Amino acid sequence: QVQLVESGGGLVQAGGSLRLSCAGSGRSFAGYIVGWFRQAAGKEREFVASSWSGGTVNYADSVKGRFTVSRDIAKNTVYLQMNSLKPEDTAVYYCNARLGAYVYWGQGTQVTVSS
Question: What is the helix (H) or strand (E) element at residue 39, kind and residue range?
Fold first, then answer.
């Protein structure tokens, strides 16, 4: 069992930056695929970024070049550095950890980007 707790969300002006953190407990997610999804009001949850245990990272086209996902194995934490934020990035951001059939979610953190 893995518990995930996100932090770092908030209100920021367009063009600004935020860094989200997702701390894992209960089990090391060193071998997991960890990443971020987001859900804007009235829309479905969508993929943002992922980090594979071998080092591969993937990004949604909408955030490429602006967001960076990273992981600190020692701290069992995954980060999402978000730069050049846009109003359309406004959403609840969820941390996700996957290993085979096991999928875990955090409770989400709100990111609001004002124009």
Answer: strand 33-39
What are the average pLDDT values for consecutive 10-residue runs of the chain, which has 115 residues? Answer: 94 98 90 95 98 93 98 94 98 96 95 97
Which residues, other chains included, contact 50 with Cβ-Cβ below 8 Å and sequence gap of 6+? 33, 34, 35, 36, 57, 58, 69, 96
pLDDT tens digits, one per residue of 71-98: 998 999 999 999 999 999 999 999 999 9
Pull the structure tokens for residue 93.
Answer: 């951001």
% of the chain beyond a pLDDT of 90: 88
DSSP 89: G
User: Residue 65 gets which letter from DSSP?
Assistant: T
Backbone angles phi, psi at 71, to 5 degrees: -140, 145
